[in-house]
Every structure is written in C-alpha cells, then in structure tokens.
Amino acid sequence: MTETVENAARADRRPPRDKRRRPRVHRAWIVAAVTFVTIIGGAAFNSLPGLLIDPLHTEFGWTRGEIGLAVAIDMALYGLTAPFAAALMDRFGIRRVVAVALTMVAAGAIASVWMTASWQLMIYWGLLVGLGTGSMAMAFAATVTNRWFVARRGLVTGILTAAGASGQLVFLPLCAWIVDRHGWRPASITVALAALVVVPFVWLLMRDHPADVGLAPYGGTYREKPAPARGAARRTVRVLFDAARTGPFWLLAGAFAICGASTNGLIRTHFIPFAHDNHMPIPVAASLLAVIGVFDIIGTIFSGWLTDRYDARRLLAVYYALRGISLLFLPELIGSDVQPPMIFFIVFYGLDWVATVPPTMALCREQYGEDSAIVFGWVLASHQVGAAVVAFLGGVARDVFGGYDVVWYAAGALCAMAALMSLVIRRRRAPGDAADGVPDAPQPVDAGGLGR
C-alpha cells in the first residue's frame, strides 16, 4: 500500500507533457529543412526558361516574344496562385497542397516534351507549371515560418528564401550541360523528376502545425491547432480588399513588383540570351547565373539576420538602390569571356537578388498580423506580375531593337523608384504607445496615398 502511494506521488510530480524533456533538435527545424528541399524541387523548373529561349526559337521558329509570353503566364500565375495557396493550406493542410503542386509541376514539364505549337507551351509551361510553382511560392515559406517559429523568424525566412537560389545553383549548370549536349527535352524531364522525388519527403516528414506533434512553436508557447479555415477563396479576396484600403500595401506591392521585374523577369529570363548575343557560350552564362545563386544564399540569410535587428524599410531602400546601380553598369561589363568587372557584378548582384524578401515579410507581419501570410501572397503576386511584364517586354524589346540595353537602363531607374517607395512606408504603432511595436488596426489610405 505504501509503495502504491509513493508511486502515485512520484507520478503527480511528473511534469506535464509539454514540459518534459524535448529533443535536442526542435521539430520546427526539421519542417524548415523539408520546406527548403521542397522549394528547391519546385524551383528546378525556374532554371529552364532562360536556357530554352534560343533552342525553342531555333527548332520551332517561335519569336522571343511568344516564348516570353509563355514565361510571363507562368510568372503571373505563380504570383496570383500564392495567396490562394496560403488560404488552401489553412483549409486542407500544407502536405496535401504541396504534394499536389509538385505533381502539377512534373506533369507540365513532362508534357512539354511532346509540344509542337506555341499555345501548348503556354498551357504546359504557363498554366500547369505556373499553378504548381505558385502553390510552393514564398507564401508557403511565410506560412511555415508563421506557424512553426516565433524566435528566429527573420533568419528562417532568409534560409527558406535562399532555397530558390539553391535550386538555381544545383540545376542551372546541370540543365545547361544537358541542353548543350543532349537538347532541351532531357533537361525538361530532369526537372520533372526532381519535382516528383520531393513528394515522398513532403508526405512523410512535413507536419501542418506544431500541435500535431504536441509541441509549441520554436521560441513560443503551446497553442492548440485552429480548426480548418473554410471559404479559403473568400477569405483570400476579403484579406486583399482589407489590405488594399491601407497605404503600406500599395507601397509594398509596388516595390515588390519592381523587385520581380529586375530579378525573375529580367535576369533569370533574359540574362542568358543577352550573354549569348554578346558571344558568351550558354554554359558559361548559366554558370554565372548559378554563381549568383551562391551569393544569393549568403545575401538572403544575412538579410534575414539584419531584419531581426534593423528597420526593414531602410534595408529595402538600400537593397533596391544598390540593385539599380548594378543594372545600369551591366551593358558595359558583358563580353564574350568573363572579366573581373563581370565577376564583381555577379557577386554584388547575387548578394542582393532576393535579400528584399525577409524585410518585406517582416513589414507584412508588422502591418497585417494573422493575415500576413495571405497579404504577403498578394504582394508576391505583384512581384510576379512585374516579372511577367518584363519577361514578355524584354523578349519584344530584343525582337524590335535587336538588343537588351534599353531594358537594363529602364530596370535601373525602376529600382530607384522602389527605394523611395520603401522609405515612405509608415511604421505601425499601438494606440497610445509609440515604442512597443504592437500593431493597431489597419487604417484607410490618406489623401496622399502614402500613409494610413
């Protein structure tokens, strides 16, 4: 009897489940690692368009404007799908949405092997791949970060954002070698297989919420998993209309549209054809883009670290200004071989490639709270619309002017505008307390349209 009482007393002294000894590696980091690999798998296809413009033009006789239009559809859908994907993840869970998205990317890439007309290019590359990659866009990274992390959000955002650059680093040289030696079709099959390989990892290792495994978010306190959010599309549109009544949304969206125009739309799509116009071999140009990816990883993670410590608005202004300056010099640096000034541009531009993402996400969280992942999805949509416009117009400019110089100069000027737009975003404060940083409710745009 005495032994039974003592055992019961010891049981009463046991800590609750959530206070027992945790594994040394928090599950949040495993989820972040799976997310990183998933984004790499989905980003594999983004390595292809710049490599395939010339081969498709040569084989089918399609104009660069037609090919650019297919890439533009892909980029636009990538952006427009993102906010709905964030809401669908709230409704159906991250695993299901991402697994379906990876399958769509693979289907589009494989189907393109048998295309014979430009409208098929727009269906396979534009529609299927655009919807699939859009469902694994940076809104996916924002959803994972918001659910699984309280501490180190800026750092994790930087790491997950760098995943796209890591995919570029892995797949660009490989795909360039395949295109050069074996043609564009084997390269398309390669990225399809890369997407399919990731699906089992997502299904087995990804979890939708820390509560699924009885944990608190990293650096936070335990919270029950919320009920599935119904009416995903309606909620996504409602969040857009609410955010559109505030000045910061338009400033963030406008600056991020310029970000997309000066990265995905311009460099990722047209740098290799531009370098080839200047007699640089395609594998060499692809290797330079891969090097951009190396320094992008460094720059984006460092940007996440800075975002945890400094004013996100000023960081954005510096990033956009430096990017604009570098683009203005590019036409003078390109040549048939790689000289030291060109290497300096690649390193400098690479550090800045998507360093804008962590501070932009931080400003969305500051301004829009629980809806920030969906709001960032809409801001990302503007990024991709900007990229789509330049992907198309860049091809048209090449057809009309016989070169890309005017596009680089225009992009440099736009980046200066983005720097100014970032600086005039007003910080959000709680009523009666200008120091604690607790957000108040969004306010309508004022008469000047720049503040709340």
TrEMBL record:
It is a multi-pass membrane protein. InterPro entries: MFS, MFS_dom, MFS_trans_sf, Proton-linked_MCT. Keywords: Membrane, Transmembrane, Transmembrane helix. The chain crosses the membrane at residues 28-47, 67-88, 97-117, 123-143, 155-179, 185-206, 248-267, 282-305, 317-336, 342-363, 375-394, 406-425. Residues 1-20, 432-452 are annotated as: Disordered. SUPFAM superfamilies: MFS general substrate transporter (SSF103473). Coiled coil: none annotated. Pfam families: MFS_1 (PF07690). Residues 30-430 form the Major facilitator superfamily (MFS) profile domain. It is found in: Cell membrane. PANTHER family: EG:103B4.3 PROTEIN-RELATED (PTHR11360:SF284), MONOCARBOXYLATE TRANSPORTER (PTHR11360). This is MFS transporter. It comes from Streptomyces anulatus.
